[in-house]
Fold S1 family peptidase.
Amino acid sequence: MRRTTVKRARVSALLVAGGLVAAVFVPAATASPTSGSDSASGSGPAQTQPASDALLTAMQQDMGLTKGEAKARLAAEKKATAVQDDARRAAGKAYGGSWFDAKSGTLAVALTDKAKADAVRAAGADVRMVRHSAEELTAAKKRIDKLSAPAGVSSWQVDDKSNRIVVSVVASKKSDNDVRAFVADARESGPVTVRETAEAARTTAAGTVGGDPYYTGNVRCSIGFSVHGGFVTAGHCGQKGASVSGWDRSKIGEFQGSTFPGSDMAWVNVANGWWTEPVVLGWGTVSDQLVRGSNEAPIGASICRSGSTTHWHCGNVQAKNVTVNYQQGAVHGMTQTSVCAEGGDSGGSYISGDQAQGITSGGSGNCSSGGTTFFQPLNPVLSHYGLTLHTA
């Protein structure tokens, strides 16, 4: 791709004119950036409008909301995101987790000490009394992380709402001796609830098919978010030093860093006439979305995903700090969502409003019958590699 002399405002039209193959290359292009500062944390100016009409339409279709409900929810989620840090500080050691409560439209904070309730409410959150602190549950999960998990165990995470650790097992494997032994050992580590899933989690990379954002050998994956000097994507898509080419098979750059399993993160440098833009492709379902920061949305918040196979879909954040047991090995610190994904969506973007959230890793199910997906949170990737998010 050698279009360095083309003005940014024309890039979107050029990509669409090239057909599907062109359109997939993207988080590299469309609207030109506006004023604002970039930082490793990714915070930036907020939009005056909660979302475009197209984004509201997508939320209506995927989440069963009316337009008015979608607008109200985005506004409430923005407020919840803004108060969560203050609420956690107010809770101190009594903090037991937090999530966005869609029914009340507020941030709910779990507490182990009633004496902290007034301070948390003063910070703008509701209070739920629980038995276990987040510190206790996180410590218990770390003990489970040290166990060797069989293939019949899909994932495990701290569930803030239930104030327990949820271990997901494949329904057809729940009676296997190794699965039962893992669950028994997990229960010795702390409060555990077992849930069944139809199938094990898998990564969402795919072999070469049409309409690819980028290739590594014969593997197709999706661009995540632009950073200064390149873009971030999933670690399982390629090893450090592997060459990356774009939709037109011209070289983009190489993987400069890659981690998988353990985490699922990587970044690719951009050179050879390619450039970066602070944009997530809407695939015609919504307008292409500008990225203005990376403030982390709470559990329960709405979130949308863009990928080269299934394009644009939305859902909710279900859990954080999830350990996912892929066939290749466990990955830690993942976020679980109700957004569907399929092969080739790996590395793609999760965004909430105009705030970048993370990178598609894998999951189960599909976009016909629905599914569960996991993403690598973005801010740890930026911190790990010393990158700065490209924001509008």
Observations:
- The CA atoms of residues 280 and 289 lie 5 Å apart.
